Protein backbone atom coordinates (compact mmCIF):
# COMPACT_ATOMS: atom_id res chain seq x y z
CA UNK A 1 0.00 0.00 0.00
CA UNK A 2 1.24 3.48 -0.87
CA UNK A 3 1.95 5.62 2.21
CA UNK A 4 -0.35 8.30 0.84
CA UNK A 5 -3.32 5.98 0.29
CA UNK A 6 -4.87 6.54 3.77
CA UNK A 7 -4.79 10.30 3.16
CA UNK A 8 -6.44 9.88 -0.24
CA UNK A 9 -9.10 7.64 1.29
CA UNK A 10 -9.77 10.15 4.08
CA UNK A 11 -10.28 12.92 1.53
CA UNK A 12 -12.53 10.78 -0.66
CA UNK A 13 -14.75 10.00 2.34
CA UNK A 14 -15.64 13.71 2.66
CA UNK A 15 -17.53 13.72 -0.64
CA UNK A 16 -20.67 11.80 -1.49
CA UNK A 17 -21.75 13.79 -4.55
CA UNK A 18 -20.26 13.98 -8.06
CA UNK A 19 -17.70 16.69 -8.66
CA UNK A 20 -19.45 19.84 -9.96
CA UNK A 21 -16.34 21.03 -11.77
CA UNK A 22 -14.35 19.84 -14.77
CA UNK A 23 -10.58 19.87 -15.22
CA UNK A 24 -9.44 21.93 -18.19
CA UNK A 25 -5.67 21.59 -17.69
CA UNK A 26 -3.30 20.07 -15.18
CA UNK A 27 0.33 19.32 -14.48
CA UNK A 28 1.58 15.72 -14.43
CA UNK A 29 0.43 13.92 -11.27
CA UNK A 30 4.01 13.00 -10.35
CA UNK A 31 4.95 16.69 -10.03
CA UNK A 32 2.10 17.33 -7.59
CA UNK A 33 2.23 14.29 -5.31
CA UNK A 34 4.50 15.87 -2.69
CA UNK A 35 3.05 19.39 -2.71
CA UNK A 36 1.64 20.38 0.68
CA UNK A 37 0.63 24.01 -0.02
CA UNK A 38 -1.94 24.92 -2.67
CA UNK A 39 -2.99 28.45 -3.64
CA UNK A 40 -6.59 28.75 -4.83
CA UNK A 41 -7.50 31.51 -7.29
CA UNK A 42 -11.17 31.98 -8.24
CA UNK A 43 -11.74 34.02 -11.40
CA UNK A 44 -14.62 35.52 -13.37
CA UNK A 45 -14.16 37.52 -16.60
CA UNK A 46 -10.87 39.18 -15.61
CA UNK A 47 -8.18 37.38 -17.65
CA UNK A 48 -5.71 40.28 -17.65
CA UNK A 49 -5.96 40.80 -13.90
CA UNK A 50 -5.79 37.03 -13.41
CA UNK A 51 -2.54 36.87 -15.33
CA UNK A 52 -1.08 39.60 -13.09
CA UNK A 53 -2.16 37.56 -10.07
CA UNK A 54 -0.53 34.39 -11.39
CA UNK A 55 2.68 36.19 -12.30
CA UNK A 56 2.89 37.59 -8.76
CA UNK A 57 2.57 34.05 -7.43
CA UNK A 58 5.26 32.81 -9.81
CA UNK A 59 7.57 35.53 -8.46
CA UNK A 60 7.31 34.39 -4.83
CA UNK A 61 10.59 34.21 -2.91
CA UNK A 62 11.67 31.56 -0.42
CA UNK A 63 11.98 28.50 -2.65
CA UNK A 64 8.74 26.85 -1.53
CA UNK A 65 7.19 24.03 -3.54
CA UNK A 66 3.66 25.23 -4.16
CA UNK A 67 0.87 24.51 -6.64
CA UNK A 68 -2.00 26.66 -7.86
CA UNK A 69 -5.62 25.84 -8.58
CA UNK A 70 -7.35 28.36 -10.85
CA UNK A 71 -11.11 27.91 -10.71
CA UNK A 72 -13.02 29.54 -13.55
CA UNK A 73 -16.55 30.52 -12.49
CA UNK A 74 -17.80 31.57 -15.93
CA UNK A 75 -18.88 28.53 -17.87
CA UNK A 76 -19.31 29.87 -21.40
CA UNK A 77 -16.41 31.95 -22.70
CA UNK A 78 -14.01 30.82 -19.96
CA UNK A 79 -11.51 33.56 -20.82
CA UNK A 80 -9.71 33.30 -17.50
CA UNK A 81 -9.42 29.54 -17.72
CA UNK A 82 -8.03 29.72 -21.24
CA UNK A 83 -5.44 32.30 -20.19
CA UNK A 84 -4.47 30.27 -17.13
CA UNK A 85 -4.21 27.04 -19.13
CA UNK A 86 -1.86 28.77 -21.56
CA UNK A 87 0.33 30.03 -18.71
CA UNK A 88 0.36 26.57 -17.13
CA UNK A 89 1.45 25.05 -20.45
CA UNK A 90 4.23 27.65 -20.65
CA UNK A 91 5.49 26.53 -17.23
CA UNK A 92 4.62 29.70 -15.29
CA UNK A 93 3.04 27.56 -12.55
CA UNK A 94 2.02 24.01 -11.82
CA UNK A 95 -1.32 22.74 -10.64
CA UNK A 96 -4.82 22.71 -12.10
CA UNK A 97 -7.17 24.86 -14.11
CA UNK A 98 -10.73 23.82 -13.37
CA UNK A 99 -14.15 25.12 -14.41
CA UNK A 100 -17.09 25.45 -12.00
CA UNK A 101 -19.81 26.60 -14.44
CA UNK A 102 -22.42 27.29 -11.75
CA UNK A 103 -21.97 30.97 -10.94
CA UNK A 104 -21.43 31.86 -7.29
CA UNK A 105 -18.36 32.73 -5.27
CA UNK A 106 -19.08 30.08 -2.63
CA UNK A 107 -19.39 27.46 -5.36
CA UNK A 108 -16.00 28.55 -6.73
CA UNK A 109 -14.27 28.26 -3.35
CA UNK A 110 -15.92 24.91 -2.68
CA UNK A 111 -14.69 23.59 -6.02
CA UNK A 112 -11.12 24.79 -5.45
CA UNK A 113 -10.88 23.36 -1.93
CA UNK A 114 -12.43 20.07 -3.02
CA UNK A 115 -9.94 19.82 -5.87
CA UNK A 116 -7.07 20.50 -3.44
CA UNK A 117 -8.19 17.81 -1.00
CA UNK A 118 -8.70 15.15 -3.67
CA UNK A 119 -5.73 15.88 -5.97
CA UNK A 120 -2.98 16.66 -3.47
CA UNK A 121 -2.49 13.73 -1.07
CA UNK A 122 0.28 15.55 0.85
CA UNK A 123 -1.84 18.68 1.33
CA UNK A 124 -1.33 20.54 4.62
CA UNK A 125 -2.90 23.90 3.84
CA UNK A 126 -4.79 25.88 1.24
CA UNK A 127 -4.11 29.55 0.61
CA UNK A 128 -6.15 32.08 -1.32
CA UNK A 129 -5.90 35.17 -3.46
CA UNK A 130 -8.53 36.80 -5.67
CA UNK A 131 -8.09 37.50 -9.36
CA UNK A 132 -7.92 41.27 -8.80
CA UNK A 133 -5.08 40.98 -6.28
CA UNK A 134 -1.32 40.54 -6.49
CA UNK A 135 0.87 38.98 -3.84
CA UNK A 136 3.98 40.75 -2.59
CA UNK A 137 7.19 38.70 -3.09
CA UNK A 138 7.32 37.37 0.50
CA UNK A 139 3.58 36.73 0.84
CA UNK A 140 3.85 32.94 0.69
CA UNK A 141 7.01 32.79 2.78
CA UNK A 142 5.41 34.85 5.56
CA UNK A 143 2.30 32.66 5.66
CA UNK A 144 4.21 29.37 5.67
CA UNK A 145 6.58 30.52 8.41
CA UNK A 146 3.60 31.51 10.54
CA UNK A 147 1.82 28.22 9.83
CA UNK A 148 4.86 26.27 11.06
CA UNK A 149 5.15 28.11 14.37
CA UNK A 150 1.93 29.87 15.39
CA UNK A 151 -0.67 28.09 17.56
CA UNK A 152 -3.51 28.52 15.06
CA UNK A 153 -5.23 26.82 12.15
CA UNK A 154 -6.57 29.80 10.20
CA UNK A 155 -4.45 32.76 9.11
CA UNK A 156 -5.18 36.07 7.43
CA UNK A 157 -3.02 38.76 5.87
CA UNK A 158 -3.24 42.40 4.91
CA UNK A 159 -4.77 43.71 1.69
CA UNK A 160 -3.93 47.24 0.52
CA UNK A 161 -6.17 48.88 -2.09
CA UNK A 162 -4.73 50.34 -5.29
CA UNK A 163 -7.25 52.86 -6.62
CA UNK A 164 -7.27 53.29 -10.38
CA UNK A 165 -8.46 56.84 -9.70
CA UNK A 166 -5.51 57.99 -7.61
CA UNK A 167 -7.42 61.07 -6.45
CA UNK A 168 -9.62 58.71 -4.38
CA UNK A 169 -6.74 57.11 -2.50
CA UNK A 170 -7.96 58.74 0.71
CA UNK A 171 -10.71 56.11 0.71
CA UNK A 172 -8.14 53.55 1.88
CA UNK A 173 -9.06 54.69 5.41
CA UNK A 174 -12.67 53.54 4.86
CA UNK A 175 -13.61 50.34 6.76
CA UNK A 176 -14.88 48.88 3.48
CA UNK A 177 -11.32 48.92 2.13
CA UNK A 178 -9.22 48.68 5.29
CA UNK A 179 -7.94 45.38 6.73
CA UNK A 180 -9.43 44.50 10.10
CA UNK A 181 -6.05 44.09 11.81
CA UNK A 182 -2.66 45.79 11.51
CA UNK A 183 -0.25 43.72 13.65
CA UNK A 184 0.81 40.08 13.49
CA UNK A 185 -0.40 37.82 16.27
CA UNK A 186 -3.48 36.02 17.61
CA UNK A 187 -6.85 37.46 16.60
CA UNK A 188 -10.42 36.51 17.56
CA UNK A 189 -11.64 35.72 14.03
CA UNK A 190 -11.24 36.45 10.33
CA UNK A 191 -13.91 38.24 8.30
CA UNK A 192 -12.75 37.84 4.71
CA UNK A 193 -11.32 35.21 2.40
CA UNK A 194 -9.46 37.79 0.32
CA UNK A 195 -6.11 36.67 1.78
CA UNK A 196 -5.91 33.49 3.83
CA UNK A 197 -4.17 30.27 4.80
CA UNK A 198 -6.36 27.45 6.15
CA UNK A 199 -5.05 24.18 7.52
CA UNK A 200 -6.37 20.97 6.00
CA UNK A 201 -7.93 19.81 9.26
CA UNK A 202 -10.30 22.78 9.28
CA UNK A 203 -11.80 21.77 5.94
CA UNK A 204 -12.06 18.13 7.00
CA UNK A 205 -13.77 19.00 10.29
CA UNK A 206 -16.30 21.47 8.88
CA UNK A 207 -17.09 19.27 5.90
CA UNK A 208 -18.36 19.77 2.38
CA UNK A 209 -19.79 22.05 1.12
CA UNK A 210 -17.32 24.15 3.06
CA UNK A 211 -19.01 27.48 2.26
CA UNK A 212 -22.78 27.77 2.45
CA UNK A 213 -23.88 28.42 -1.14
CA UNK A 214 -26.87 30.46 0.02
CA UNK A 215 -24.32 33.28 0.37
CA UNK A 216 -23.24 33.01 -3.27
CA UNK A 217 -24.49 36.40 -4.42
CA UNK A 218 -24.75 38.40 -1.21
CA UNK A 219 -21.26 37.56 0.02
CA UNK A 220 -20.66 36.47 3.59
CA UNK A 221 -20.04 32.79 2.96
CA UNK A 222 -16.49 33.30 4.17
CA UNK A 223 -17.62 35.11 7.36
CA UNK A 224 -20.09 32.30 8.05
CA UNK A 225 -17.33 29.71 7.48
CA UNK A 226 -14.98 31.47 9.89
CA UNK A 227 -17.76 31.75 12.48
CA UNK A 228 -18.35 28.00 12.30
CA UNK A 229 -14.61 27.35 12.49
CA UNK A 230 -14.38 29.41 15.66
CA UNK A 231 -17.36 27.56 17.16
CA UNK A 232 -15.52 24.30 16.38
CA UNK A 233 -12.57 25.44 18.48
CA UNK A 234 -10.12 26.47 15.76
CA UNK A 235 -7.79 29.40 16.36
CA UNK A 236 -6.93 32.45 14.23
CA UNK A 237 -3.71 34.35 13.55
CA UNK A 238 -2.89 37.54 11.66
CA UNK A 239 0.23 37.74 9.47
CA UNK A 240 0.73 41.38 8.54
CA UNK A 241 3.73 40.54 6.36
CA UNK A 242 1.64 38.20 4.17
CA UNK A 243 0.58 41.19 2.13
CA UNK A 244 -1.45 41.59 -1.03
CA UNK A 245 -2.49 44.56 -3.13
CA UNK A 246 -5.98 44.82 -4.65
CA UNK A 247 -6.93 46.71 -7.79
CA UNK A 248 -9.86 49.06 -7.14
CA UNK A 249 -11.57 50.13 -10.37
CA UNK A 250 -13.09 53.60 -10.48
CA UNK A 251 -16.62 52.31 -9.84
CA UNK A 252 -15.57 51.08 -6.41
CA UNK A 253 -14.70 54.59 -5.34
CA UNK A 254 -18.20 55.86 -6.14
CA UNK A 255 -20.53 56.63 -3.24
CA UNK A 256 -23.22 54.24 -4.48
CA UNK A 257 -20.87 51.24 -4.55
CA UNK A 258 -19.41 52.04 -1.13
CA UNK A 259 -22.85 52.45 0.41
CA UNK A 260 -24.06 49.18 -1.14
CA UNK A 261 -21.03 47.37 0.31
CA UNK A 262 -21.62 48.87 3.78
CA UNK A 263 -25.31 47.92 3.71
CA UNK A 264 -24.31 44.44 2.58
CA UNK A 265 -21.82 44.12 5.45
CA UNK A 266 -24.59 44.92 7.91
CA UNK A 267 -27.02 42.45 6.33
CA UNK A 268 -24.40 39.70 6.39
CA UNK A 269 -23.54 40.23 10.06
CA UNK A 270 -27.20 40.08 11.05
CA UNK A 271 -27.87 37.00 8.92
CA UNK A 272 -24.98 35.11 10.53
CA UNK A 273 -26.13 36.11 14.02
CA UNK A 274 -29.67 34.91 13.29
CA UNK A 275 -28.27 31.54 12.26
CA UNK A 276 -26.39 31.32 15.54
CA UNK A 277 -29.52 32.27 17.51
CA UNK A 278 -32.49 30.53 15.89
CA UNK A 279 -36.03 31.02 17.14
CA UNK A 280 -38.06 34.03 18.18
CA UNK A 281 -35.96 34.97 21.19
CA UNK A 282 -32.79 34.82 19.14
CA UNK A 283 -34.26 36.97 16.39
CA UNK A 284 -35.38 39.54 18.94
CA UNK A 285 -31.85 39.67 20.37
CA UNK A 286 -30.41 40.28 16.91
CA UNK A 287 -33.01 42.99 16.27
CA UNK A 288 -32.20 44.63 19.60
CA UNK A 289 -28.52 44.66 18.72
CA UNK A 290 -29.28 46.21 15.34
CA UNK A 291 -31.33 48.97 16.97
CA UNK A 292 -28.57 49.57 19.52
CA UNK A 293 -26.00 49.85 16.72
CA UNK A 294 -28.25 52.32 14.92
CA UNK A 295 -28.43 54.44 18.06
CA UNK A 296 -24.68 54.27 18.54
CA UNK A 297 -23.95 55.03 14.88
CA UNK A 298 -24.28 58.80 15.34
CA UNK A 299 -21.49 59.26 17.91
CA UNK A 300 -19.39 56.53 16.31
CA UNK A 301 -19.86 58.06 12.89
CA UNK A 302 -18.97 61.55 14.12
CA UNK A 303 -15.79 60.18 15.71
CA UNK A 304 -14.83 58.28 12.57
CA UNK A 305 -15.60 61.23 10.32
CA UNK A 306 -13.51 63.61 12.43
CA UNK A 307 -10.64 61.12 12.61
CA UNK A 308 -10.52 60.60 8.85
CA UNK A 309 -11.71 64.05 7.80
CA UNK A 310 -14.42 62.47 5.64
CA UNK A 311 -18.21 62.56 5.95
CA UNK A 312 -18.41 59.65 3.46
CA UNK A 313 -16.32 57.48 5.78
CA UNK A 314 -18.23 58.73 8.83
CA UNK A 315 -21.48 57.35 7.41
CA UNK A 316 -20.22 53.77 7.56
CA UNK A 317 -21.60 52.77 10.97
CA UNK A 318 -25.07 54.13 10.15
CA UNK A 319 -25.05 52.28 6.83
CA UNK A 320 -24.09 48.99 8.51
CA UNK A 321 -26.89 49.40 11.06
CA UNK A 322 -29.36 50.21 8.28
CA UNK A 323 -28.26 47.10 6.40
CA UNK A 324 -28.88 44.98 9.47
CA UNK A 325 -32.39 46.40 9.90
CA UNK A 326 -33.27 46.06 6.22
CA UNK A 327 -32.27 42.40 6.37
CA UNK A 328 -35.03 41.84 8.94
CA UNK A 329 -37.46 42.51 6.09
CA UNK A 330 -35.69 40.20 3.67
CA UNK A 331 -33.79 42.94 1.84
CA UNK A 332 -30.43 41.58 0.68
CA UNK A 333 -27.96 43.33 -1.60
CA UNK A 334 -26.77 40.71 -4.09
CA UNK A 335 -23.66 42.57 -5.24
CA UNK A 336 -22.19 39.37 -6.65
CA UNK A 337 -25.19 38.68 -8.89
CA UNK A 338 -23.46 40.87 -11.50
CA UNK A 339 -19.72 40.40 -10.83
CA UNK A 340 -18.74 42.71 -13.68
CA UNK A 341 -20.36 45.59 -11.76
CA UNK A 342 -18.87 44.60 -8.41
Concise account of the structure shown:
The chain has 342 residues and is α/β, with parallel strands linked by helices.
Beta-strand portion reads 15-25%
The count of β-strands is 10
How widely separated are the two ends?
49 Å
Give the proportion of residues in helices.
40-55%
Cα gyration radius (Å): 20 Å
| Uncertain stretches | none
Order of helices and strands: HEEHEHEHEEHEEEHHEHHHH
Count of alpha/pi helices? 11
Biggest sheet features:
10 strands, mixed
| SS content category | alpha/beta
Overall mean pLDDT stands at: 93
Shape: globular
Give a verbal description of the structure:
The protein has 342 residues and is α/β, with parallel strands linked by helices. Helices cover 42% and strands 18% of the residues. It has eleven helices and ten strands. Strands 1, 2, 3, 4, 5, 6, 7, 8, 9 and 10 form a ten-stranded mixed β-sheet that branches. It starts with a helix and ends in a 15-residue tail after the last helix. The mean pLDDT is 93.
Structural topology:
Blueprint: H1 5-12, E1 22-26, E2 37-43, H2 47-58, E3 66-72, H3 79-89, E4 95-99, H4 105-119, E5 125-129, E6 133-135, H5 139-149, E7 154-163, E8 185-187, E9 195-199, H6 200-206, H7 221-231, E10 236-248, H8 255-276, H9 280-308, H10 311-314, H11 316-327
Parallel strand pairs: 2-3, 2-5, 3-4, 7-10
Antiparallel strand pairs: 1-4, 5-9, 6-10, 7-9, 8-10
Attribute tags:
342 residues; alpha/beta; globular; 10-stranded mixed sheet; 11 helices; 10 strands
Amino acid sequence: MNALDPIRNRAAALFTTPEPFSVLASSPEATLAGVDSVVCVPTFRRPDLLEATLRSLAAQQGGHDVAIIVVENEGIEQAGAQRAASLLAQGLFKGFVIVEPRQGNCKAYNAAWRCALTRFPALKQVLGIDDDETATPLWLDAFLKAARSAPAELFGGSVTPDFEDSSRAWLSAHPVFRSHYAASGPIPILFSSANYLIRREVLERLGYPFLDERFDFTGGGDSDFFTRAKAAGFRFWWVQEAAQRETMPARRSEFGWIQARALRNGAISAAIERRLRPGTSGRLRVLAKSLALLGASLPRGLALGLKTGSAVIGLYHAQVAAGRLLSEFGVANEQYRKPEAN
